[in-house]
Amino acid sequence: MNSTRFFNLFVFCFVLFNLILFSISPLNFQSHFRENQFISSAYSLISSYHRGIARFSFYTKSNILFHTSLFEINDEGDFERVSLVPLKIEKFNNLLYEIINKRFDTIRLAILTGHLKNEGDFVCENFDYKKDISYLHVVGPILSDGEMALVLDRAKNEEGARRMMVGEKTLYLYSISCLRANEREVLL
Amino acid sequence: MRRRNSLNVQRLLFILSVVFIIIFHFEKLLNIKTYYLYFSTTPFSYQVSRLLLYGLFLTLGISMFSEKRIFLFLGLVLSSILNLQFNYGADVFIFNLTLFLAFIGNSSKDDFLKSCGYLLMLSHLTVIYIYNGVNKLTDSIWLNGKVIEFYLTPKIGFLQGVELDVGIARFISLSVVVLQFSILLIWFKKCRKLIAILFILKHSFIAFFLHPFFGVVCVLTHFHVYFYKGNAFKDTLKGLEKS
C-alpha cells in the first residue's frame, strides 16, 4: 500500500468516525438515551475537539418552556423573556434564580445567592424533580447585571464545580441537574 | 468557460468565508477580557487565548493565498483548542465551516479531500437540521407560533399598525420545520440548489432580525452547498479507490 493510499484511507476513516460521533452525540441530551454509556462517551469524545458540538441540541424553545414552568409554579403572571438566551431572574422563597436551559428531561438552574445549603435538594424538591448532580450552577454573592449575565452564560457551558474570579469577587459554580420525576407536562 | 466561472465563484466564496471566520474570531480578540470572564482563571490562559487567536488569524490569512490545506488544518486545530466561550449557535457553524473549508481547500482541482469536505458538509448539515427539526416538531410552543410571535412582534414594531397574525406565525413555524426536514433533499443534485436557496432565505431573515453572526455564517455555508455540483459520497469512494 503506497503512502497516498494509506493517508487517504486514514482520512476516510477519520471522516466516517467523525460523522458517526457527530450524528449520535446529540442523543446524549435526549431522555431515552441519558443513561447510555456509549452515547455519553461519543459525546465526550467529539466535544473534546469540536467547538460547541451540542449547541444545536439546545434548541431555544426550551427557554420559553422553562419560564412557562416558572409561571406555573409561582403563579405570578406572565413572564417576559429578555433576550434570546434567557437571562431572566426570578425570586422564589427569597432566592434569586434563573433557569438556564431545559431539555426534554432536564432543567438547568442557576441560583444566584451565596446562602444556600443543600442547593440541589431544595431546588429539586420545589420543582418536583429528582436530583442528579451535574448541571445546577450556584453563584454568589450579589453581582452587577453585566457580571450576572456573564456568569450565567458561562454556567450554561460549564460542567462540574469550579471557582472563578469576577473582579474582586470569587464565585463558586456548582453543577446539579434535576431529572424530571414524572415527566410533568408544562401547562400554558 | 462555465466551469471556470463556477470555480471563480467558489474561490470567491472560499475567500469570503475565510474573511468572515477571521472577523468572527476578531470580535473575540476585541472583547477578550469579557470572554475571559467566562472561562479562564489565570493570566496564563488569558495570554494563551490571545496567542491562539493571533495564530488563527495568521494561518487563516495565509490560507487565502495558498493552495496548501495545512494552514486551514492548523487554523482548525487552533480554533478547536481556543479556550473562549461559545458565541451561541454561531460558534458551531463557524467551527463546522472551518472544518469543511480545511478539507475543501483553496485549490481549483477536485480531489479526494475536497469530496471529503463536501461529504462532511452535507452530513453535518443534515444531522443538525434533523435534530433541530425533531425538537421543534415535539414542541407545542413552536408549533403554535408563540416563539415566532415572541421574536417577531418587537422587530416589526416600527411598522405602526401592523400586527403579526397568529395564523401567519403558525404558518412560519410549520414552514421552518418542513424546511428543516427537507435538508435530506440536498443529497440529490436536482433538488440541492432549491433547498440551498430556501435555507439562504431563512438564514438571511435570521441575520436581519435575530443574530447577524449566526445568520451570515449559515448563509455562507449554504452558498457552498448551492455551488457544489458533485455527488459527495460517490466522489469520496471514487477518490479512495483511485488512490
Task: Give the structure's gist in a few sentences.
The complex is a heterodimer of chains A (188) and B (243). With 188 residues, chain A is α+β, with helices and mostly antiparallel strands.
Tell me what you see in this structure:
- The complex is a heterodimer of chains A (188) and B (243).
- Chain A has 188 residues and is an alpha+beta fold.
- Helices cover 36% and strands 21% of the residues of chain A.
- Chain A has 5 helices and 8 strands.
- In chain A, the strands form 2 sheets. In chain A, strands 1, 2, 3, 4, 5 and 8 form a 6-stranded mixed beta sheet that branches. Chain A has a two-stranded antiparallel ribbon with strand order 6-7.
- The C terminus of chain A is likely disordered.
- Chain B folds into 2 domains: 92 residues, no CATH class; 134 residues, no CATH class.
- The radius of gyration of chain B is 20 Å and the shape is globular.
- Chains A and B meet through helix 1, helix 3, helix 5 and strand 6 of A and helix 2, helix 5, helix 6, helix 7 and helix 8 of B.
The stretches of 5 or more residues of chain A where confidence is low (pLDDT under 50) are: 60-120, 126-143, 155-188
Structural class of chain A: alpha+beta
Low-pLDDT segments, ≥5 res of chain B = 37-41
Provide the helix percentage of chain B: over 70%
Write down the secondary-structure element order of chain B: HHHHHHHHHHHH
Let me know the number of strands of chain A: 8
Distance N terminus to C terminus of chain B? 29 Å
Number of helices of chain A: 5
- Outline type of chain B: globular
How much of the sequence lies in strands of chain B comes to under 5%
Order of helices and strands of chain A: HHHEEEHEEHEEE
Task: Give the chain pair forming the largest contact, with residue counts.
Answer: A-B, 43 and 44 residues
